[in-house]
Design a protein that fits this description.
single chain, two-stranded antiparallel ribbon, ubiquinone, NADH dehydrogenase (ubiquinone) activity, Beta Polymerase, domain 2
């Protein structure tokens, strides 16, 4: 057994330090293939490196015969939280664009602000949905040609409880912008499908979940709930029980209607402060927690 181990170690040394020993034949321009070499051939080099090979053999012989490397206990380093660094130059450009948009459309843009540090938001009047989004898409300095999403928000403590949020992206300038407007249970909002074709299903989803009506929508009907469903599930006052569930029963191989079964009938409800469960909406101001941008022209730097 020891003889085989020594032979394996010797072959390992030859492969590491003397790979040319495996290629004793070489091409000679006069004699063709030959195993005779001159004094300058690389085959003579093992004589020089032989002492190093012997030293490596002793090292390998002393080491345990194992393919597993020694495991060192690595020090556990706690990763620091990743904090997004704000690009001040980008913030400056977005702020200037927000002022420019408010100057071009003063009738509709009510406020310009930053959210999460460097995310531009335009707060507009409901009648300005079409003019503002047409401006953002068609203006040469904007080119927000990509509609990312349209969503709704329900804040029951406000007079106009519903917010409709439009997120657009400009591939030309690699910038994002959100347009926020408001409405209630009755007042409709103009559909933007004439500007962004992709808004069709987004607006249907907002209508289905929140009950916001979009004028001039080509096909405004429910998209997530079943036909004949009553109510709008994403409203904060939507009851958690009392409705039928529609699902496919794999055993019966058909659609079944049955009462909704929830493990928890209601999470938390206080008659005195019913909406304290949602602390993000304690402040009824639409601009709470945001950095408002001054719409006046940026003062020139002192020379």
């Amino acid at each position: 057994m020891d003889r085989h181990i020594r032979r394996a170690r010797r072959r390992l040394v030859l492969r590491v330090l003397m790979p040319w020993q495996r290629h004793r034949w070489h091409w000679d321009t006069q004699h063709g293939w030959s195993d005779t070499v001159n004094s300058k051939s690389p085959v003579m080099l093992p004589v020089v490196v032989r002492p190093f090979a012997r030293g490596l053999q002793r090292t390998i012989a002393a080491a345990p015969l194992s393919t597993s490397a020694p495991v060192h206990q690595a020090e556990k380093k706690q990763k620091k939280p990743t904090v997004l660094k704000l690009d001040e130059e980008k913030r400056k450009r977005l702020a200037n664009f927000g002022r420019y948009a408010a100057e071009c459309l003063p009738k509709f843009i009510q406020q310009v602000q930053f959210a999460a540090g460097d995310e531009l938001e335009l707060l507009i009047h409901p009648s300005g949905v079409i003019p503002v989004l047409s401006f953002l898409k068609g203006n040469h300095s904007a080119q927000f040609t990509n509609l990312t999403f349209v969503c709704g928000v329900d804040v029951p403590t406000r007079k106009n409880r519903f917010e409709v949020v439009y997120s657009v992206f400009s591939p030309r300038f690699m910038a994002r912008c959100r347009v926020r407007t408001y409405t209630d249970e009755v007042a409709p909002i103009e559909s933007i499908t004439s500007i962004y074709k992709g808004a069709n299903w987004y607006e249907r989803e907002v209508y289905d979940m929140f009950g916001v009506w979009f004028n001039n929508h080509p096909d405004l009907r429910r998209i997530l709930t079943d036909y004949g469903f009553e109510g709008h599930p994403f409203r904060k006052d939507f009851p958690l029980t009392g409705y039928n569930e529609v699902r496919f029963d794999p055993e019966l191989k058909r659609i079944v209607y049955e009462p909704t079964e929830l493990a928890q009938e209601f999470r938390k409800f206080d008659l005195e402060t019913p909406w304290e469960t949602f602390p993000a909406f304690r402040d009824t101001s639409i601009t709470s927690g945001y950095e408002k941008i001054n719409l006046d022209k940026e003062p020139e730097a002192k020379k």
